[in-house]
Amino acid sequence: AAAAEEEPLAGRDEAARPARRSRADAFLAQLQASPFYRGQLVYVHETRPAAAQPQPPPSGLCPAVTGLLRHAGIESLFSHQAAAVEQLLSRGHVMLATPTASGKSLAYNLPVLHAAATQPEARAMYIFPTKALAHDQLRALRSLASQGVGPLFGLDVATYDGDTPQEERRARREGSRVLLTNPDMLHTAVLPAHKEWAGLLSNLRYVVVDEAHMYSGAFGAHVASVLRRLRRLAAMYGGGGFRFACCSATLGNPRELFCRLTGAGAGGASGEPLLVVDWDGSPRGRRQLVLWNPPLSAQPTCIPEGKGVPQPEDEQPEGGRG
Questions:
Q1: For the segment 125-150, what is each residue's pLDDT rounded down to a tens digit?
Q2: Would you put residue 181 in left (φ > 0), alpha (ψ -120 to 50) or beta?
């Protein structure tokens, strides 16, 4: 179990911070002094606040994408976002291993939108472990592409999963510039019918694999095989030069996982350039992490009569009372 406190950074009332800190410290002291928790709070760790590390958007982004950023009110990127965008624009792979809510999706969305704006036939595929995540990113990408009235307004972005109606699948297969799917759909519906997907495979520029830490063990081995088959089929149709962008907030070995999962990167058989982005340029507030080690035996509690789990002495013989 963990308890955490975050303080706001820029744009908030600076005078309120000591009050928030004192309340959090008082709450922690109360827990430590409580007889119920005595000896159970085994570790307390505090992370200090950190300011953002802004950088201007890479100069390689086309005017259509920089225009989207201006309309969205984004004047600069975080340092890790800028590095990832630069690497993807220069046709390298990226493994983003930065914390939750650090803006990883913007780091791969910008190169994808750049390709869509500058290459009329360019396509991209986003792979998520769940349909819910795919639909969340669908809304976010559509919203970003529709900022202002530019060449990317109304970009054809669609999901392709088990819930996609049969009558819509052909249109999404042939017309979607960005297709959001999952490993199961890629394995059972896309790759076996690769002739029907030749248009996407031949023009594939980016493949995004989000929540990469989910692909471990036997499941990860299967997904790794599926991604290798995707690379082979794309190469067969002339689109084998696509780049991977993998993301995770909970990885201790990002380079090793990327290479094993995709077969690409500096550590893979292909020797293609890979940038591991494991530093965080986004702002962070002060946090306190408390680890609680509860006792193995249940502590006595007051349970009203007639409530709770029946005890052996409460059990009645078959047939009821004699």
A1: 999 999 999 999 999 999 999 998 78
A2: beta
